Amino acid sequence: MRNKAISDAKAFGDYQLECVQKQYELDSDAVEEEYQFEKQNLHDMMMAAIAEKKKQIVEDRDDIGERSSELARETAYRTASKRNLRKRTAAGLELQDRRSHGYSSRGDTPRRRAAADRSSTPLRLDAPVTGKEEDELESEFLQLKGMNTPANKKTNSAGANRR
């Protein structure tokens, strides 16, 4: 009886081992099929993306070719119609007058020099605004709006009082 119980337990253990091995093989096959399916999907998606990129590159090349030919035509037109501004007599006189006052031909006035000096210094947003800077900003703002600056208003009001 003991031998029979041992042989039955052994047979049952072998049966369980065989069931587990079959289940493992089924699961392995399912995972392998899923892997192959996903691999094929990924390959198809990549090939479609590559085909789309190739199509876009061909279209861009054609577009660039058209643009470059248009650009060449525009450049040829621009060079043919370019004017030589130095031959103007009035501008030449104004240019000489500016040079005699120490200004360059680029219109380098004291105001532009001051603006260049300001732009060359690093911008500190946390720094307090000085009175001079505030006055300059206000006068530039009013000048942009087309209004008189505070200094001009005082002059205009004094002139109005005389009348």
Automatic annotation (TrEMBL):
<dbReference type="GO" id="GO:0005654">
    <property type="term" value="C:nucleoplasm"/>
</dbReference>
<keyword id="KW-0678">Repressor</keyword>
<feature type="region of interest" description="Disordered">
    <location>
        <begin position="60"/>
        <end position="163"/>
    </location>
</feature>
<keyword id="KW-0539">Nucleus</keyword>
<keyword id="KW-0805">Transcription regulation</keyword>
<keyword id="KW-0804">Transcription</keyword>
<feature type="compositionally biased region" description="Basic residues">
    <location>
        <begin position="80"/>
        <end position="89"/>
    </location>
</feature>
<protein>
    <submittedName>
        <fullName>Uncharacterized protein</fullName>
    </submittedName>
</protein>
<dbReference type="Pfam" id="PF08598">
    <property type="entry name" value="Sds3"/>
</dbReference>
<feature type="compositionally biased region" description="Basic and acidic residues">
    <location>
        <begin position="60"/>
        <end position="76"/>
    </location>
</feature>
<dbReference type="GO" id="GO:0010468">
    <property type="term" value="P:regulation of gene expression"/>
</dbReference>
<dbReference type="InterPro" id="IPR013907">
    <property type="entry name" value="Sds3"/>
</dbReference>
<feature type="compositionally biased region" description="Polar residues">
    <location>
        <begin position="149"/>
        <end position="163"/>
    </location>
</feature>
